[in-house]
Amino acid sequence: MRKKTKITIDPKYILAVILVFCLILGIVSYRFEDKMSPIRTVVGSVITPMQKGINTVGKKIAGQRKYFTTLQTEIKKNEELKKQIDELSAENKLLQQDKYELQNFRKIYSLDEQYANLPKVAARVISSDPDNWSNVFVIDKGSKDGIKKNMNVMSGEGLVGIVVKVSKSYARVRSIIDDESNVYGTILDNSEGCIVSGNLELMRQGVISVSGIPGNAKIEDGAEVVTSQISDKFLPGIPIGYLRDLKKDSSNVTQNGYLSPIVDFTSLNMVLVITEVKASEELEEMLK
Amino acid sequence: MKRYLSMFFMIIIVLILQTTIFPHIRLVGVMPNLFVVLTAASGFMYGRKFGMYTGFLCGFFIDYIYNDVIGISIAIFVIVGYINGIANKLYFEDDLSIPLASIALSDLLYGLLYYICQFMMRGRFHIWTYVLDIMVPEAIYTIIFGVFVYKFMHWLEEKLYPPKEELVHTGDKLIT
C-alpha cells in the first residue's frame, strides 16, 4: 500500500469536506425524511437480528449482576420480611375486599376502557440508544407488522412513548422520559390540562417535569395524569404518572411540578404498540 | 486495507454491545461509550485520516439507527477522531497514560459537543449538572473499558502487521 505513490490530501481538507457533508446530510435527512427509509431498512435489517440475539445475553448478565450485588442484603431483608408477612397477610384480607370494589369502579370509569379496547401488538425491546443522553429504544416490529409512525406505545401499566421512525422490520420509539418528548396530558381529578415533558436532569431523580397547569387549579400530590383528548398524537386516557411537588411559577398564571411515571423505564422488555393512529388526517390535510 | 476492514467489524461489534448489553450494566445511570474509545484510539494510533474514518462510521451507524437528523453524530465523532489524530505525535506503543488521558478527554469533548448540539440549542442551560451527572462519570467509566479496548487494538495491530524488528536486529548483528 504505502509503496505506491498516491495523491495525498491534507486531512484538514478531508475534515472540512466531511463537516460540510454532515451539514448537507443533516438538512437532507430532515427535509426528505421519507425518502431515506429504504437505506435505513438496509442498515437495520442487518444489525437488528444480531442485536436481538445478544440482547438476551445482556439481560442474563444484568440478572447475574443483580444476583451478586443484592444477595447479602437480601438475606438480612428476608428475615425482616418474614415477620412482616404475618402482619401483611392479615391486612391483605382486608385489601382483597377493597380490590373487588376498585374493579367495579374501574368498569364504571369510562377512561379506562377507552384504551383497553384498542387493538394492540406486543413487541420486544431489542436495543436502546448507545449514549447517555437520550432515551430511545428499538422494537422488533416494523412496517410489515403494521406499525406506523406516531403509534402510541405502552406497557401493561401506562404510556411508554411514541413510534418516531418505522422500518420494515423494526421501529424506533421515543420514550416519554426522553429530553425531547412532550405529551399533552389531563389531570384525572379535575380535567385540567398540562404538558408533560421529559427532562434529562430530572430523570436521574426518577421524575419528569410537568408545566402549564392553570394557576388557580387545586391539585393534591399524587393526582393521576392521563393523556389528553387535545393531543394530536396520543390517544386519550392512557395513564402517564402521578403529580407531585406542584409550585406556582413566578407569573402566578401556571403551576409547574414533577411527575413520576407509572412505567419503570429501567426494565422494559416487552411493550404494547397500539395499532391505531390518532385520526389526524384532516389536520394533516389542513397543514398541507 | 486490513486495518480499515477490521475497524469496520469492530465498530459493528461495539454497536451491538453498546445497544444491547451496556444499558444493563449502567453505574450511577451512565454507561461507557466504546465508540469514543474506538475513535480516539484509532486517531491516536494511526493519525488523523484513520481517526476520521472511524469517527465517520461510528457516527453514521448511530445517526442512522437512533437519531432523527443524520449528521450531528458524524460531525462530532469526526472532530474527535481528527483531534486525536493530531495527538498522534505523542504516540508510543508501551505508554498507557497518554492514550487513556486522550480517551477521557475525548469522551468529555464528545459529551460537550453533544450537549451543545442537542441540549443547549433547546434551551437547557444547566451545563454543570450535565457535566457532573453525565460527562464526568461517563468519562471515568469509559476509561475502565478503554484500557481493554486499547490493549485489544494493539494486539490486533501486531497480528495484522507483525513488527519487523527482528530483521532489523539481525541486520545490526551482521554489521557488527
Brief summary:
The complex is a heterodimer of chains A (288) and B (176). Chain A has 288 residues and is an alpha+beta fold. Chain A is built from 5 helices and 12 strands.
Helices and strands in order:
The complex is a heterodimer of chains A (288) and B (176).
Chain A: H1 11-31, H2 37-108, H3 110-116, E1 120-128, E2 136-139, E3 152-154, E4 159-166, E5 171-175, E6 182-187, E7 193-197, H4 200-203, E8 208-214, E9 224-227, E10 239-248, E11 254-261, E12 270-274, H5 281-287
Antiparallel strand pairs in A: 1-2, 1-12, 2-5, 3-4, 3-12, 4-5, 6-7, 6-9, 7-8, 8-11, 9-10, 10-11
Chain B: H1 2-20, H2 34-46, H3 48-66, H4 72-86, H5 97-119, H6 127-160, H7 165-175
Helix pairs in contact in B: 1-3, 2-3, 2-4, 2-5, 2-6, 3-4, 4-5, 5-6
What does this entry look like structurally?
The complex is a heterodimer of chains A (288) and B (176). Chain A is globular, with a radius of gyration of 24 Å. Chain A has helices spanning 11-31, 37-108, 110-116, 200-203, 281-287; strands at 120-128, 136-139, 152-154, 159-166, 171-175, 182-187, 193-197, 208-214, 224-227, 239-248, 254-261, 270-274. In chain A, strands 1-2-5-4-3-12 form a six-stranded antiparallel barrel. Chain A has a six-stranded antiparallel beta barrel with strand order 6-7-8-11-10-9. In chain A, strand 3 (152-154) and strand 4 form a beta hairpin. With 288 residues, chain A is of the alpha+beta class. Chain B is built from seven helices and no strands. Chain B has helices at 2-20, 34-46, 48-66, 72-86, 97-119, 127-160, 165-175. Chain B is mainly alpha-helical and 176 residues long. Helix content of chain B is 76%, strand content 0%. Chains A and B meet through helix 1, helix 2 and strand 1 of A and helix 1, helix 3, helix 4, helix 5 and helix 6 of B.
